Amino acid sequence: MREVQMDLISEEKLNRMTSMEKIRLILDKVKTGRIVVLESGLTPEEEVRLIEMTMTEIRVDEFSGIEIESYPAKREGSFVSRILGRGSSKGRMTVIGPANQLRTVEKDQYQISTKVSVGD
What we know:
Elements: E1 6-9, H1 11-15, H2 19-31, E2 35-38, H3 44-57, E3 66-70, E4 74-75, H4 79-83, E5 89-90, E6 94-98, E7 102-107, E8 112-116
Parallel strand pairs: 1-2
Antiparallel strand pairs: 2-6, 3-6, 4-5, 7-8
Helix pairs in contact: 2-3
Organism: Methanothrix thermoacetophila (strain DSM 6194 / JCM 14653 / NBRC 101360 / PT) (Methanosaeta thermophila)
Protein name: DUF2073 domain-containing protein
């Protein structure tokens, strides 16, 4: 039986990294077949940049892309700042893995259920 490696990355570690460092860390891990779980998630801008970088690195025979799921974001800041788009928004937890291995089955505000497929 083949094993799946999961890397659970703390919010503390993520807070010490720049956006590009986070994205590079995630891509490097997922490209080796690991499932990455981020305790504090990514900002919407970081998710977009991760997807953009993933698209440039896809190789049919090596790397098929990523699957990414986050709990719904909690918006921080006052009601007025959120209306004006100035409140910060960040995923609470994010699960990222190789697109050919990780599939989201169900997601709600409290739980993300995924299936991991492993080849022989």
